[in-house]
Design brief:
Blueprint: E1 8-13, H1 17-28, E2 33-39, H2 42-52, E3 56-59, H3 68-76, E4 83-88, H4 93-102, E5 106-109, H5 114-125, E6 130-131, H6 133-146, H7 151-159, H8 163-173, H9 178-185, H10 189-203, H11 208-217
Parallel strand pairs: 1-2, 1-3, 3-4, 4-5, 5-6
Helix pairs in contact: 2-3, 3-4, 6-11, 8-10, 8-11, 9-10
């Protein structure tokens, strides 16, 4: 049918067969998601990614042979890499930072509700990074501990924004997606994306997490 997007091709990489089975059952019923393969460790995941060309990989962290962080870095080193969502039972700061440094596009805990995992796959496939709220807070806390937060400087940076841009920035600081911001502020998603692009320019940031940190430093979220 003309205008219908093809299903999102997903590769599941996890050494636990029960987890692979559960994800397969959960995602297999989604009409716009296609589970194209499974891998049992990081090295197998790299090989499967090369052979199957998935759009999104659900990647465990702790696996034998090669862990998920090393596999994520290797996948992202290839031309036109797939998106990677790290899906794990661990919320430790080092895992979050390690996953993002390796090039992960999302980080979710395995106890995330199924509907939220499905939503995360759609968001990441569309090029929008996805972090669970608890992980976002962990990341912000860690970065603030490693740097010297300057509330006055953050407030000065935000002062250059228009009222609408400030509202969008605060919403990003709350962890809302573009679609959620659009619904809350009665804007189109395209308009929200335009505001986000201007925020990058005005705040001198390159991603949404940096915007969230600025908002939190200013005490607005």
């Amino acid at each position: 049918m003309v205008g219908v997007n093809p299903p999102i091709r997903v590769l599941v990489v996890d050494d636990d067969p029960l987890v692979r089975s559960a994800l397969g059952l959960m995602l297999g019923g989604q009409p716009d998601i296609d589970i194209v393969g499974e891998a049992v460790d990081g090295r197998d995941g790299i090989a499967q990614a090369a052979a199957l060309a998935p759009d999104v990989i659900l990647m465990d962290i702790r696996m034998p042979v090669m862990d998920g962080l090393a596999a994520t870095a290797a996948v992202h080193a290839r031309p036109d890499p797939p998106r990677v969502i790290v899906l794990t039972t661990f919320e430790a700061d080092d895992y979050v930072l390690g996953a993002l440094a390796a090039g992960a596009d999302g980080f979710l805990l395995k106890d995330t509700p199924p509907a939220d995992i499905v939503a995360a796959i759609h968001r990441v496939a569309a090029g929008e990074p996805m972090l669970s709220p608890s992980v976002t807070q962990t990341l912000i806390r860690r970065i603030r501990e490693d740097t010297d937060p300057n509330a006055a400087r953050a407030e000065a940076r935000l002062a250059a924004l228009t009222e609408r841009e400030r509202e969008v920035a605060v919403a990003i600081g709350r962890g809302l997606s573009n679609a959620e911001i659009a619904a809350e502020l009665y804007l189109s998603v395209a308009t929200v994306k335009a505001h986000v692009s201007r925020l990058f320019d005005k705040l001198g940031t390159t991603n949404r997490v940096q915007i969230a940190i600025c908002v939190h430093d200013a005490g607005l979220a």
